[in-house]
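dumping this here before i forget
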Amino acid sequence: MFEAELYEPVISCLRDSFAAVGRNVHLEIAATRGLSEQVKRSIPKGNEIVFSFLHLHRPDIIGVIDGENVLNPLVVAEVKAKTLTVADIYQTKLYKDLLQARGGFLVSIKPIPENLRRLCSENWDIWRSPSDGPYRFLAICQFDLTAGKFIDWFQEDPFQQEYRWKF
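structure:
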């Protein structure tokens, strides 16, 4: 299976997850289509320099959380059809930090490896960024393509953490 085949099912599940916490989100495939004007408008003022990087490298999925006074309205997702590696975490973290996104999702259809869980549990520098406050996060999850839902989260399911969505 190719990553591109996973984009739409993951977008649908993410959209449903945001709706479950009372948030609408505009999600789009950035990997092949680039960034829409709606997403470009959501990039924080003063951070336009990211446009020079995003024409070469973009997250697989990017989204804008709808609503007035939404802090950090962007979210990004990297989708993998393979077993996750540390490099995948850093790639997702790079897009989250570069875009000053509220959240980053690293999604795989393979189980989250135990060695990756342990490494991230013991080394927060891999997992978290210095600029992450209480609302910004990076989440790793396994996606069940047959069921069309997320079935495992590391370290926690951000949609079960109510404080992440109060802004």
